[in-house]
Amino acid sequence: MTPALLEIASLSAGYGEVPVLSGVAMVIRPGEIVTMVGSNGAGKTTLLRAISRVIGARGTLRFDGRDLTALTPEQVFGLGLVQVPEGRQLFDRMTVEDNLRMGTYRRRDDARIQQSFERVYQLFPVLAERRQQIAGSLSGGEQQMCAIARGLMAAPKLLTVDEMSLGLAPVVVDQLLGVLGEIRKQGITVLLVEQDVFAAFSVADRGYVMETGRIVREGAVAELEKDPEVRKAYLGVQ
Amino acid sequence: MNRYRWLALPIAAAALAVVPWFTSDTIVQYGINALLVATLAQAWNIIGGFSGYPSFGNSVFYGLGTYGTAIAMAQLHWSFGSGLVFGAVLGVACALLFGIPILRLRGPYFAIATLGLAAVMSAITATVEIAGKNIGLILPLFRGDTLFYELSLILLVAATGTVAWIARSRFGAGLVAIREDEDAAQVMGINTTTYKVAALTVAALFSALAGGIHAYWITFIDPASAFDPSLNVRMVIMTLFGGPGTVLGPVLGALILSAVSEVLASQATGVASLFYGIVIVAAVLLMPKGLLDLVQGFRDSGWRYFVDNVRRYRI
After folding, report:
1. Which domain CATH number covers A63?
2. Does residue A47 belong to any structural domain of this protein?
3. A110 touches chain B (CB under 8 A)
4. B-chain residues near A83 (CB < 8 A)
5. ipTM of the complex
6. Measured between alpha carbons, how far is A41 from B189 in angstroms, rounded to an integer?
7. What domains can be seen in chain B, in order of their start residue?
8. What is the pLDDT of residues B90-108, one digit of tens each?
9. Predicted TM-score of the model (pTM)
10. Burial class (CB in 10 A: 0-12, 13-18, 19+), B32
């Protein structure tokens, strides 16, 4: 079995005195698309924040063989663990191209940045058309594409996408799910955090189900889809 | 034309440098004030214009530079050079000490915290023995307007050079990212607190040096004049008038508004501040993004630029 790209074990984290996560364990291997699903307030975003070191956490947190617990958020980012945040968080008054350029902020391999631009524009032709447009004037779907593209410009090893489908039309979500498959083909591992379980299961290899700060189910999505509890709670079918 | 554009700045600086040899004392004295205020506006531009943090604490850095130089020269009998350095050290230390906690605040909370700092600083200084309590300090008298003029010009050129570097650097791109969306900047791996503290510290350095030069020139300082909050307001107005987040905007804004207020004060003494107010209000209404944007916008769309601005900002 290939060594894990991201390895989390007995992780607990919270805000101030309030614990949110307890005993979370998760493994992501290179080239996988892994999804984490769970309802609102289950702790999904908190887990992402703990991984990126924005909030403190106790437990095992290893990425690409490095212990993350001693690192700052910038250092984690520098290792290639890049987030596409919930709500996109674009630089609304900058052009699409400047937003993408901000993605390369911490890169030092200037010569290869042009290549990344080309690859990203190939992935999202609509962004190439709109490269001089102000990001705030894009449609919701295009903004999400721009946010994912900006994350890709940072040359990530693992791209985590938080609530990708939020507020988007189903047809746009399908299109973005297809892009995640393309991204994986380029050798980038993806962690997709979603409330839309149907969408997430359609593209992921494996999944984790989170409830009140704990992982309650895990496995291949084919198995999770058959699990009666998951079907009842998240898919709304008996 | 564009190839020789960079030559315009050294020529402008050289032209300003020879002014004392061709004009009257009054103009040189006005020039010292204008150059120092332009330096302060340029320094404010770094934290307020680039990173978008409206600081009302820059007058504190100016005041600390003033007092540092005055204490060093009047009480410790150091040279002017060492006094300047001492004042700059005080200003920079203050920026670091207060910047690290208060730059974690955003928007209006940050502005209020810096206002508080400004209010407290003059009160504290008025109780310190070595700072002459609330009476103030008198520095050794030195008549040399030309020297002060050239020093002020050098400081302004240094501040503008620093801003020109910031505007083209990775550091500057990080500050602009913070201004546009701080959360997104964080997601892109920018250590926002470090960047903001660095911006405030550079601003503090130039503000404190300007204060030190002003102290030795004016020879008498007291807490009310050294920590004058309205000086900070002038920095803000001049930067916004010229164009925040640009390299030359704050300098142009400061030099033009200084000239306007000087002419008004001598020609229409009674209603000078009224006219000054009208100029500011007109500027906010018609060119809210500053002079440099006006130049560009007027070239693109002529008089419509003003109409568009009034419409766009729904004033």
Report:
1. 3.40.50.300
2. yes
3. no
4. 187
5. 0.72
6. 26
7. 2-244 (1.10.3470)
8. 999 999 999 999 998 887 8
9. 0.83
10. buried
